[in-house]
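hiii, so i know i said id send this last week but things got crazy w the move. better late than never?? heres the sequnce for the chain we talked about at the cafe, plus the structure i predicted for it. fair warning i was half asleep when i ran it
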Amino acid sequence: MSIWRPEDFYVPEDISAEFSALSRWENFPQAMV
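okay and structure toks below
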């Protein structure tokens, strides 16, 4: 299992936090299965 870090995403800091958090938790179940 790979660990995702905000640094891995090149997104404006304004939305990087929300976007990374959303995509992270949205895909978490799929990544675990």
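btw The mean pLDDT is 67. thought thatd interest u
miss u guys!!
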